[in-house]
Amino acid sequence: MAAFTHPNHGKYKVIGTRPIRHDGEDKVTGRARYGADVHQPGMLHGAVLRSPHAHGRILSVDTSRAEALPGVRAVATAKDLPELPDKVMASGEGIENQRYMSTRILAGEKVLFKGHPIATVAADDPWIAQDAAALIEVKYEVLEPVLDVLKAMEDGAPRLHDKITATLMGKKEQVDSNVCLHTRFQAGDPEAGFAEADLVIEREFRTKTVHQGYIEPHHATALALSDGQITIWTSTQGAFAVREQVATVLKKELSKIKVIPMEIGGGFGGKIPVYLEPLAVLLSEKSGKPVKMTMSRADIFQATGPASASASRVKFGFKKDGTIIAATFWAAYEAGAYPNIYGMMGAMCVLAPYKIPNGQVDVYDVMTNTPKVAAYRAPSSPQALFGVESVMDEASKALGIDPIELRLMNAAEEGEQRIDGLKWPRIGMIETLEAARDSAHYKSPAPSGPNQARGLAIGFWVNAGMQSSATVGINMDGTANVVTGSVDIGGSRASMAIMAAETLGLKAEEVRPSVGDTDSIGHTDITAGSRTTYATGHAVYLASLDAIEQMKPRVAKLWDCDPAEVVFEEGAFRSTKNGQEPMTVRQLGPKLPATGGPVQGQGSLMATAQGSGFGLHIADVEVDPDTGKTTILRYTAVQDVGTAIHPAYVEGQIIGGATQGIGWALNEEYVHGDKGELLNTGFLDYRMPTTLDVPVIETILVEVPNPGHPYGVRGVGETPIVPPLGTMGNAIAGAIGVRIRELPLSPPRVQAAIAAKENAAGKTEAARETTAKPVPAQS
Amino acid sequence: MKPLQFSAPTSLDEALSLLSGAGDGAGVLSGGTDLIIQYREGHRALGQMVDIKKIPELNVLEFDPASGLRLGAAVSCAVLGEFAPARRHFPGLVESAELIGSTQIQSRATVGGNLCNGSPAADSVCSLMVLNAVCIVAGSGGKREIPAVEFMTGPGRTALQAGELLLEIRVPPPPPNSSDAYLRFIPRNEMDIAVAGAAVALTLEDDKRTVKTASTAICAVAPTPLMVPEAGAALTGAQMDDAALDAAARASEAAANPISDMRGTVEFRIHLAGVLTRRAAVIAKNRAAAN
What are A's interface residues with B at a Cβ cutoff of 8 A? Predict the structure, then answer.
């Protein structure tokens, strides 16, 4: 079958090309300015006193010795934060109750995780600030912590909060529980479905807490003037989200705060919540000086949002021909120390890739004595689909059906209803599976040496829309400046320039893209949810169209015709009455002053037509049976990307996501001590993959355009972290002949599984070996 | 964090006088890849830091067929790795030095520092032990020799007395038909610390098949790197047959006395001590046979 072809293939002039990114030289030469590069005259340095206990009641906080230390300019505690209502605010991809947000930022009555901030100090240098923080005396009543999600659900488990407002199957209730959210979706009659099934597989899975692991630590610098004007420099996924959170937690008006987003060294969902920004503002207000705060790597691991650990049970029923007749999913997701909704996101994703006539999903968000969980690239989908794709792999073997064919025959498609109620728009699940089936990798023989195997799994993410703004200014030489409010994490400046250039008939190099601060552009939501190229790209398109509309009367003036006779087609203004040579934006630019002055296009929208993303990854692996270590021999990632605006950055997103997923699958995990303290607080013992641990990741871009975007863009960045968990699990199960249902598939765990299998086999073989002759030794 | 006194003496006498009487408050800075981190993370309080890289005696790197290798305490792993006689005669020592950290780290880190840091997981120390290396140290009382096998006394502890400085490491010249190998296990492929490690040095008979002498050591499986004489004995006189390799592996497993921590369990580390001993022995033998 011929591969699916984008309907506009070959029609675009700039979209689909690979110009050098506009911010490239700045970054490769080290000139780009990140949070750590901020220096202000008279700047103080902040430090944070953090809880040494995972769970405890604060009996007293005495800051007097810290305040007396020479060089200390300000000390703040929870008493300096305003009282906030028990009210939920949307916060990027998550939600946050204002009252809990305040106590998360500075603990008042209780500390809920090791590393929970209790007080903060500003001093003349960072060393004085650290020494002063150590002089603050805190008395605690240490309480028993609970870290495991299943234990936290038990009746007698330690409670993090006395009474919480939980949402249980849609109803808000006051409960005394660590369960803050129970999400249920249903379709058909699962019991009847399983009764009809020829094959039922039910399995339990566990995954550990993992961290986003961005290379750049959190930083924030704030200057609060006595007139109430506040400026914040920070590296964040959303300048407007920082402004909103700081305004909420410190009870300010938005217009009093300006947030300047610095370049960002990775976020992956973890740089959406504010941690240091409100502290820097508090300290600046108290000291009258700019205050810079920075986190150590240990602070980041133990006090910023990781991704949920999970426990799940997956049950699938199949007909003999491979059709899924019923499926259920039960899971508990770690919420961290405060109410959270990431489990719900797993509930939305878990059964979405397949047609499920009878199904039920029950997912619990469970609070534990760990930092509040934050988004991590397709939040909660990897944990859910690890289980589902492991079961699909077992089913493919039990039914004797090729694993891609099994997925194809059950693939979700346009018009079908998802279990959470959404009706699928045009999606590219089938085209992705077909491209994978037809790929050179899948057509090559699977590795057949000892301890080698091939594995594959799919991934899915809903993607986000949300609010974006852009302006397109036409310069007097006809080039253009694009300003958006979206922080550039993955090459979005280049993508914005390409979409503006395509719309305006310019070259990508003729467009200068930049990221505005909160004073220079309209409200724009976070760079997250795989939404930037989709939603902010749409705003850029609207702003470009607006500029074109404003330029049409100028052209009409020059041509002395009715503006209605001027159209913009194929990169130039043209007359519908003929007789005029087409005029490009470059040609018109110098004539703008004489025809009415500057032109600036505006584009703003609440985007809601994001296309969801599907991917399938294939891995060939070899496991060292003596050490349990896995080597990836070949890896291919196939994904429906809608339209690849700048294919190099689309590939980069897929490669980056796959790499993070591989790390999650193989080695990454939070390791806690008996008292709930995180033991591996650095990159030595929190093992993300290095460049030597992943092979070249081959990418195959499938382009099924999203009808909800003028250029067919679909979110790309999050989906690729989902498939590697199942892919590695399935490949390793094939290689060692035993399936491990708990992540990570680290060498000790894999080696132990091999040893257990051999011991079990050895007991039956031992009898036979007693009569066998010894094999002559080879030299 | 308190300010500290930094000095970079250019003579041994000057360095020794700075160190004498300073006790634990003086940190000897070679590459600094351990010391600076310990200082910055508050694990080690220092009043002064003495950089030894400018002292000529500590930068010696020589090989003499009669007297062997002289490796100054300030010579970086990267420089050692580019020293052809070391690569030829002690490939196991060089490979252990080139496993420490990353390429960038190896440009700073030294084998001497690896010894003095006293980590039970120190990669190069196993290699020094199986090669019968000797450490030359100096203090206010003059110079003395400490065999590499006696240098480490516990986690983070060494045989160095207060005020003493490691000058150089001497590795005796290898007999004909000799070679060595070092292997460690890490979950990733770089930027990691051994979960377990094993070094083997051996000499073959003139048939280049039979092991004349062998010595093995293991690391990260006990409070200090350990010699395993029983493993060496198991290999001696044999031709790397499965029985001899199995016996050597069992000997390393029996000698291993690890702890469970986040880098590995007791069971996994004991198992690895055997696997790595076996594999390192085969590599050392193949190298010696090719000499």
Answer: 127, 130-131, 626-627, 629, 666-667, 671, 679-680, 683-685, 687, 689-690, 692-693, 746-748, 751-752, 755, 775, 777-779
